[in-house]
Amino acid sequence: MTRFKRNDPEITRRKFINVAMGTTAAVGGVSLLSTLGAANPVFRLTPDKMPPLKGDLLVHAEGSKEGRPVRLEDLSIQLVRAWPMGKNENGEDVIRKGDPNNILALYRFPQGQLVAPTNLEATINGQVVAYSDVCTHAGCSVSDSDVNAGEMRCPCHSGQYDPKRGAVVTGGPPPRPLAQLPITQQGENLVVSGFFLTYPYPFTSKEEWESHIQEVEEQLA
Ligand code: FES
């Protein structure tokens, strides 16, 4: 599991709040932060808004199996969308779809097709891989409609990614690859084994993401 630097004096708590709430600095953020600042709240993420956490079970996000665990046999070179599911304080299952940016894209490729810069240690048997399904350009959900099997395309501005090569950008305006989520196998199910390896949308830098992880870990401690 990737470890992260813990401190960055340039990252403010307000910036973290802004990102975690899924807002932008330009739209609505100012009034939101004014309100938060005036109330001086203790900010806490509810379990449904937590990012994917180690131990979370991946469940189907759509279709007839929505809400049920994704099984290895469900996966292929066709994109399968999933949510991470964890527990709340009472030990009850919570699907973390309170933050729409937690949506994931899963693939299972034949042995040998997943290659660098995919982090193969963060895959299952070098075949099953999980990425953020949120486009790094402006946050649309990335799809595999209207492209060849095993390719990805964003419907908003035609961004393209290669899921066999670490979801690198192969066309269009996205500024960086989709973030890869480390996963492991538990029986026939898929389980999260750590935080995203690189910063996912809507974070705008590695430092913001690391600060977010720090806040999450402090809340969970
Ligand atoms: S939001 Fe995906 S290419 Fe613009």
From TrEMBL:
GO CC aspect terms: membrane
Under Gene Ontology molecular function, one entry of this record is: 2 iron, 2 sulfur cluster binding
Q: Which cofactor does it need?
A: [2Fe-2S] cluster
- Keyword Iron present in the record's keywords: the answer is yes
Task: Provide the Rieske domain boundaries.
Answer: 117-192
Top-level taxon = Bacteria
State the UniProt keywords alphabetically.
Answer: 2Fe-2S, Disulfide bond, Iron, Iron-sulfur, Metal-binding
InterPro entries the UniProt entry points to: Rieske_2Fe-2S, Rieske_2Fe-2S_sf, Rieske_Fe-S_prot, Rieske_Fe-S_prot_C, TAT_signal
Keyword Iron-sulfur among UniProt keywords: yes
Pfam families from the xrefs? Rieske (PF00355)
Please state what the protein is called: Rieske iron-sulfur protein
Q: What is the lineage of its organism?
A: Bacteria, Thermotogati, Deinococcota, Deinococci, Deinococcales
